[in-house]
Design a protein that fits this description.
mainly beta; Lipocalin; 2 domains; 8-stranded antiparallel sheet; 8-stranded antiparallel beta barrel; 7% helix; 52% strand; elongated; disordered N terminus
Length: 392
């Protein structure tokens, strides 16, 4: 089953430029059992390229696979300017052969496509990946859908996996068991105890470079999962928050605050800490950051007399839940008013609360007495102070 992890009957083709990379990988391929692999390499530059294509087994050694042009384990060729060359495996391996493919060149102007081609005529594709020490991807597992992950490593250093829930809480840490240099598993195989309705982030790390590919499959579906290189959980979540958001909560009446979050960036003073910035509907600056202590995003928008604080976690890709609070001039916080935030490209439907609320004014019903102990939440207060200092 693992050898056929990504050999799903669907149509999906991907072409990804790896400009700037002289070496990249397809972390998974397969041949046999009614499936063949097609690799297409294109030179987009003005100069001819010297290209080497190498086919590796899971153990990390070159393996010979029958292609329509002859058996290949490694081949070197000249690729003319703006030309392409394809390699199609014969699909005759028995038992099925799997592993990974490396492409190297003396030029930085290559693009590539890898396709799984089924006997039924459908095709499924995977992405070429440049090696990095850290990857992260969105994962999902239901009763009918699972996320497949293939990992290829360049050394025998262990690959550590950390799975986070959609709320940002750490679910479990494991070391992936690789029999050699490449392994493919479903999320449910890697992590025991997952529910049939699990979504979250998976972070893969190693001391030496690895490559990763992810596919979401099942129930007649197949789609790639965006795999981010060299990004911490804070960066991934900050970038996930980009977009137009409507955040709804109720104090004396329903209130909807609107935010356009348009940039995510790393702090120049504290490397590794990331912010997501934008403005509210009144044009006032708003800034958010992920707190690893709270395992939440904290968003601050300063009014003229109070600061408006939103701390929340992702329920799914388009929804956040958490608390709205007011912070007063003396640093105290109001109580938590439950909030729901939705990502929208346009105004929310009439079922979504649309009552007003001016962030320049004191919020009705919220007074320091509502939560005399809130200011003792030191982790939250520290994040608020950092955001307030930067949003000015």
């Amino acid at each position: 089953m693992r050898r056929l992890l990504f050999l799903m009957p669907a149509l999906w083709i991907a072409v990804v430029p790896c400009l700037g990379d002289k070496s990249f990988y397809f972390p998974h391929f397969g041949d046999g059992g009614g499936v063949c692999t097609v690799v297409v390499v294109t030179n987009t530059g003005d100069q001819d390229a010297l290209v080497t294509l190498s086919v590796y087994s899971r153990s990390g050694g070159l393996q010979t696979v029958a292609f329509t042009t002859g058996s290949i384990d490694e081949t070197t060729f000249i690729l003319r300017s703006r030309s392409s060359r394809s390699f199609t495996s014969a699909g005759t391996s028995s038992p099925v052969k799997s592993g990974y493919i490396e492409i190297t060149s003396n030029t930085e102007t290559l693009t590539a496509t890898a396709l799984f081609r089924f006997a039924s005529g459908t095709e499924a594709g995977i992405l070429p990946v440049a090696p990095a020490k850290r990857f992260g991807l969105f994962v999902e597992r239901t009763s009918s859908i699972d996320t497949g992950i293939a990992v290829q490593r360049t050394t025998l250093d262990p690959v550590d996996l950390t799975l986070y829930t959609s709320l940002g809480a750490e679910f479990k840490r494991i070391t992936m068991i690789l029999e050699g240099y490449q392994q493919a598993n479903f999320l449910g195989e890697l992590f025991s105890g997952l529910s049939d309705n699990f979504t979250g982030f998976l972070v893969l790390e190693s001391r030496q470079p690895i490559t990763v590919v992810g596919l979401r499959s099942g129930d007649g579906r197949l789609s790639t999962v965006a795999v981010e290189q060299n990004k911490t959980i804070g960066q991934l979540i900050a970038e996930k928050f980009l977009g137009m958001w409507y955040i709804s909560y109720e104090i004396d009446s329903s209130i909807v605050d609107q935010f356009a979050i348009c940039s995510a960036y790393e702090d120049s003073v504290e490397p590794g800490k990331f912010f997501a910035g934008g403005m509210n509907k009144h044009g006032q600056p708003a800034l958010a950051t992920y707190s690893p202590t709270l395992k939440k995003l904290v968003l601050v928008c300063q009014g003229t007399t109070v600061s408006h604080v939103y701390d929340f976690a992702f329920l799914d890709q388009e929804t956040v839940t958490g608390c709205y609070r007011t912070q007063y001039s003396d640093g105290t916080l109001s109580k938590c008013y439950p909030l729901v935030g939705l990502r929208h490209l346009s105004k929310p439907s009439t079922q979504f609360p649309t009552a007003g609320g001016n962030p320049n004014s004191e919020v009705a019903g919220a007074t320091p007495a509502d939560c005399p102990a809130c200011s003792q939440d030191q982790a939250l207060v520290e994040e608020i102070n950092v955001l307030k200092a930067k949003v000015r």
